């Protein structure tokens, strides 16, 4: 019981945020697949065709957005080298 009494009831704020960012990184590919599949549902005009230029612009925009989001998540989740160096010196 002494071990249970010493454990905090809630996670530290930094740990909680890091876990949520890791969850977001895991969901990013699923989010991307859904966004890239949306043009298949588009229809316009009499014959239901969508202009290829509009679809390619959308796909390129989604691709850029996913790349930027992935880079931001990777930068946030990368281990902090300064902390590791400080722990080695101590």
Give a structural overview.
The protein has 90 residues and is mainly alpha-helical. It is built from four helices and no strands. It has helices at residues 2-6, 13-37, 52-77, 81-89. Helix 2 (13-37) runs antiparallel to helix 3. It is elongated and about 70 Å long.
Helix tally equals: 4
Radius of gyration from CA coordinates: 22 Å
Spatial gap, N to C terminus: 32 Å
**Uncertain regions spanning at least 5 consecutive residues:** none
* Amount of helix: over 70%
Structural class by SSE content = mainly alpha
Q: How many runs of DSSP E, i.e. beta strands?
A: 0
* Beta-strand percentage range: under 5%
Order of SSEs, N→C? HHHH
Mean pLDDT: 82
Mass-distribution shape: elongated
Major sheet: size, sense and barrel closure? none
Key phrases:
90 residues; 4 helices; mainly alpha
Describe the structure concisely for a colleague.
By secondary structure, the chain is mainly α.
What are the SSEs and their pairings?
Layout: H1 2-6, H2 13-37, H3 52-77, H4 81-89
Helix pairs in contact: 2-3
